[in-house]
Structures are given as C-alpha cells and as structure tokens.
Specification:
alpha/beta; single chain; four-stranded mixed β-sheet; 11% strand; globular
C-alpha cells in the first residue's frame, strides 16, 4: 500500500494519459459484457437472493465458521484462525519451513495481497511464483494489481511483450496467443516443481467444509492439486451455509465480474488424505480476521457482504479516471473506499471515501445490492469526527451546520455569498473560477451563480401578490 498523499497519487494517475486510456477502454468493454449478461431474465431475483444470503451469513458468521472448520477437519484438513496478517503469514512460513518447501506457486488471491504474504515468504528465502497470468505479469514487472479482477488493465499487449523479452529472454511479440504460450511454458515447470500451492477462496461452504475457487485459466486448479500441500487463505466473511447458497452466489458472480454465465473453472476442495482419490496430501485453511471483526461491529458491516466481482469499480467514474493505483491500496474503487478504512483505520485511509460522486452507480450494479453510497457517507462522517478530513471540509461543515440551524445566520450567509460572487469571474449565470478548494471544481466545470432572489423571497413575494 502506498503512503504517498492521496492528492499526489491522484495527480500521478491523471497525468498518465496512456494508462488512463487503457483503463477506461477496459472498463467500457467489461461494462458492455456485464450489461449483456444481466439481460438474463432471473437476474433481479438472483440479486435479491444473493443479498439475503450474504447478509444472513454475516449475522451468523461465528456459527458458520465453526461448522465449516469442523467439517473440513473431519475430511483431513486443518483450519487456523488468524487474528491479523502477522499470524497468518507466520503460520504459512512456519509450515513451509517445517515441510522443507523451497518453491510456492500461488493462485490469484486479494487477501494474500492484503497481508503481504509473498514478502513474508520471500524474506525467509522461499521462492513465490504467481500463476494467474495477470498476476504473473505484475510480479515479473515488480508492479501492483490495479483491479481486483483484472490486475493488468493498465497494461497493453505491447507492454507485456516488451516485459517478457526483457525478463524471460524471449523474442518480442505482441500476439496474445504467443504471449500466453510463453507464460504457460514458464509456469508449467513451476507447477511441477512446487511443494506448496497457495490460493484464495471465493466461497467457503459451511455444511460440507468445502472451499470453492472460481477462475478462467486453470492455474487455480493446478495450484490446488499439483503440489503436495495446498494452503487456502480466506477472509473470514467468505462463507455461505450450503451448496444451494453457493450456487446462487456463483450465478451472479461471473455475470457481474466478466459478463460470463459462469467462470471457466469452478473448483471445489473438500479436504485431504485417504478420503480423496487425488490431490494434495495436506490442506490448510487460514481464516483471516485482520480488522474484519471491527468492520462487522460497525455501521459499515454490510460491506463484508461483497463477493469481489469488481462491478462497482468498473462503473465508477472516479475509478475509470484514476485506476486502482490511485487509491494506493489493495482494495480500490467504491468497495475499497469503505473496506480499507475499516481494515486499516480512518487515518489516512478515510480520505478514499471522498473520491466519489455519490452518483449511486455502484449500488445499482452491485450483484448483492450493497448500499455503498450510504457507507461512503458514513466513512466521510468518521473522517470529520476523527479530525482527519481536510481543514476546509471540517470548518466548512461546522459553519454550514451553524448557519443551517439558525434562520438569521442563514440569511446573512446567503447575502455574503451573493455579494462575494459578484467579484468572481463569470459569464451569464455561471462562475468560471472559484479560489481556494473550489478551484478543483471550476478547473474543469463552471459553478452556478447564486440567484438574485432566494426561494423564500420569491415565495414571500408571491404570497404578498407583488
């Protein structure tokens, strides 16, 4: 995560026009696919059902997690509850060292990005290789994902071709099929050599102790079956009661994420040992809290119902403009602007909630109908209460509250604003330049001039018949 000021990150993102154009183009394509997919007649009913499933799961989280752990362990798996990133990373590194693991292959996992698992393993001399094609490219380039589903939307095929030629010693090519073949040849050796595979978890199913992994490349299936040890790292909220509920979530997940009816590979892992005909000798599931309990106890608990489809990122005009890197955190876009302050604190992450127009598009496309705008407003209120909001916002809100609750003050404020606006550059009924923080608005759009007469004055005149 980046500790540079948010304003600096935004300036860098907006200034990189080629990258911004790639992001916007990718978002347009994905949104078009989602719109076509959501023409599925049952989609509205599925979204209602999915919301109910996720909210009920959050209400019954301790019981569901206990049931999941009990059932997985009956099938030869091991479950470890990690209170924070340190405990989760320590468990994996201890296991790897105890088992003599020198190479770890990884499937796509946002929670391992969140806890910096790769860095923890590498610091102990263990090689880690990302096997999702996008994540593999990101790792090779010492970069960070810019989207929770499509990590390299900010790169072109030409960028990837140049990277492979530089880092893998291949002949330059910008043909996607050839680039894919290059990555496949490189990664196949890693799959066959690794002693440990690490994946995330899309859905955990309580009544059977099953982990569900959704992907489109087959790397998740290889990561979870080829090595002799499979480690699953899951956020504690990623759970449902049974297969029927999992089926509902799967029905809305791919449609909202990539416009597919279903992910190409939907993998189910239900333990290890004698009961499994094939697969790993050991399965370890690490259930990570890392701040989720704090979110669950607060006003933004609903955000934990997110199924990580990325639809809110794709539709968000702010994300389309600055991309994921502008947010400086693993979870970007509208959902990240709520999740990140909840996981890591209002200071400095509360400022992310101000990167929103509150247009409501995120709630409109969310497959589980999360009330994201409401939660963004709550995070904004927290920044004011914590004194971390920008000075002008804190003082402005205080002044507004005093004026709005006193008619005399309000009328004086109206008169002052009207008087001051006469000295600002304007044309017709629009102000073209405002000093101070207002400069950010008028830099790209005009601001309406205050009316000559207020609504109350007009109403009074009408009542008086004048």
């Amino acid at each position: 995560m980046s500790r540079n000021p948010f304003s600096e990150r935004i300036a860098v993102a907006i200034g990189d026009r080629p990258k911004a154009e790639k992001i916007r183009s990718a978002m347009t394509t994905i949104n078009d696919l989602r719109i076509t997919s959501e023409e599925f007649p049952a989609m509205d009913d599925l979204r209602d059902a999915a919301r109910h499933i996720r909210i009920e799961a959050l209400k019954n989280l301790p019981e569901l997690l206990d049931e999941f752990a009990t059932n997985l362990e009956r099938r030869g798996g091991t479950v470890f509850f990690a209170s924070d990133a340190q405990e989760a990373n320590d468990y994996v590194t201890r296991l790897a060292k105890a088992e003599g693991v020198g190479l770890v292959v990884k499937g796509k996992s946002m929670v391992t990005e969140e806890i910096d698992l790769n860095e923890a393993l590498e610091s102990d001399g263990i090689e880690v290789v990302e096997t999702d094609l996008g994540e593999f490219i990101i790792q090779l380039d010492n970069d960070r994902p810019s989207h929770i589903v499509a990590p390299i939307i900010h790169k072109s095929k030409e960028d990837v071709g140049a990277l492979f030629a530089s880092k893998l010693g291949t002949v330059y090519s910008d043909v996607p099929e050839e680039l894919n073949a290059t990555a496949r040849a490189h990664l196949r050796e890693k799959f066959l050599s690794a002693d440990m595979g690490v994946t995330g978890c899309n859905i955990a199913i309580a009544d059977s102790g099953t982990v569900c992994l959704v992907e489109n490349e087959g790397n998740g299936r290889l990561t979870s079956t080829a090595p002799r040890i499979h480690v699953v790292v899951m956020g504690m909220e990623r759970i449902v009661a049974n297969f029927e509920e999992a089926s509902t979530i799967l029905s809305v997940l791919a449609r909202s994420a990539t416009g597919q009816a279903l992910g190409t590979y939907v993998n189910f892992v239900s333990g290890a040992g004698p009961e499994t005909a094939d697969g790993p000798e050991q399965v370890h599931v690490i259930i990570v809290d890392n701040g989720r309990s704090s979110i669950l106890a607060g006003e933004t608990a609903e955000i934990l119902g997110c199924i990580r489809c990325g639809a809110c990122l794709n539709i968000c005009p702010i994300f389309q403009t600055i991309g994921g890197h502008g947010y400086g955190t693993v979870y970007s876009g509208p959902v990240g602007s709520v999740v990140t302050p909840g996981l890591h604190g209002i200071d400095p992450w509360g400022e992310l909630a101000h990167a929103s127009t509150l247009c409501g598009a995120c709630e409109e496309v969310c497959p589980v109908r999360l009330e994201i705008p409401r939660m963004l407003q709550h995070v904004r209120a927290q920044t004011v209460d914590a004194g971390t909001a920008p000075f002008w916002i804190r003082k402005g809100i205080t002044a507004y509250a005093r004026a709005a609750t006193d008619q005399s003050r309000w009328e004086k404020a109206e008169n002052r604003v009207r008087f001051a606006s006469a000295f600002l550059s304007s044309r017709d009924e629009w102000i073209s330049s405002i000093p101070g923080p207002g400069r950010g608005w008028t830099k790209i759009r005009d601001f309406p001039k205050p009316a000559e007469r207020t609504f109350r004055q007009r109403w009074q005149e009408r009542s008086d018949g004048t």
